[in-house]
Amino acid sequence: MDKRIRKPIVKEDTRREWLRRFESGESLEDIAKKESFDIRTVKRQVDKAEEECASKEVRQAVLRNALLDHFQDMVYLVEKVMEFINAKATVSLEPEKEKLLDGLRQHLPRSPIFKCLNRWELLQKGKAEINQKISGRLLDIKVLLKLGGDDIKDLPKENYSSLRDILNHQIECWSTGVKALDVSRDFVMKDTGELVDVNYGRYNIGMMSKDTGNRLKNAISKIEQKILKWEEVKKLGELYIEETRLRNKLLDELQVIKLRRVVPGRCRYCPI
């Protein structure tokens, strides 16, 4: 009895080629005849090739969607960081977004974004410390009396709170380059009879005698000139100038990522 000749194992490349030919219109019978295989073998291999292709397409679709979601997460992260930068605030992220920020750093190891973010955080800390120090000094009535001299020694205690608010406002305006109040223009005393209602811009200081109001106006002018010479105020102005420069650079770099919607490179959180 003749021994049956065992056909070689059909490799993946071969069955994919058979599938291609079958999808191009060649019959299974013709493929079997040309390749010297049993038609049942050819059909089984073509079916298997179809299953492999379908499975591969599904995997590719899953990975593609996961990658799109990953890039979308990066865009959301960038938008969140931009919100903090626009608000001139410390970038405070949830733990999950902190990890994603580390992933973005892995994607863009040479980007200036992260060095700028580190400097940004130091600037915010520096601003907060100086503002706290200035506010602390202004809370001390002795400091205000020393700044204003005899012109405010008779100022009722309840009026000091408004005076502090005004001075903090002025310091912020001077430091950020915003137009500040001008005592010669914005200090207004509204006559109500025996007393005057004193306003400085949008700040109501309160009711007092006209003489006290005039002396307060003079005191504010002197206080403002003295505070402008404080080292803390000068330093705060320098920090705000650097903050503006850094803010523009960060927003420019982050905007590129946001508009591209695709981040080059890889990170540990990439799906592929």
Describe this protein's structure.
The chain has about 270 residues and is mainly α. Among the domains are: about 1-65; about 125-245. Helix content is about 70%, strand content about 5%. The protein is built from ten helices and three strands. Strand 1 (about 185-190) and strand 2 form a beta hairpin.
Secondary structure layout:
Blueprint: H1 12-23, H2 28-35, H3 39-86, H4 95-107, H5 113-139, H6 141-148, H7 160-176, H8 183-186, E1 187-191, E2 196-200, E3 203-208, H9 210-227, H10 231-260
Antiparallel strand pairs: 1-2, 2-3
Summarize the structure.
The protein is mostly helical. The protein has helices at 12-23, 28-35, 39-86, 95-107, 113-139, 141-148, 160-176, 183-186, 210-227, 231-260; strands spanning 187-191, 196-200, 203-208. Among the domains are: 1-66; 126-246.
**What does the overall shape look like?**
rod-shaped
Write down how many β-strands occur, each being a DSSP E stretch of 2 or more residues: 3
Over all CA atoms, what is the radius of gyration? 37 Å
Uncertain regions spanning at least 5 consecutive residues: none
Strand order of the largest sheet: 1-2-3
Structural class estimated from helices and strands: mainly alpha
The tally of helices reads 10
Q: What is the average of the pLDDT values?
A: 90
- SSE order in H/E notation? HHHHHHHHEEEHH
Largest sheet: 3 strands, antiparallel
* CA-CA gap between termini: 56 Å
Q: What percent of residues adopt helix (DSSP H or I)? A: 55-70%
Query: What percentage of the residues does DSSP assign to strands (E)?
Result: 5-15%
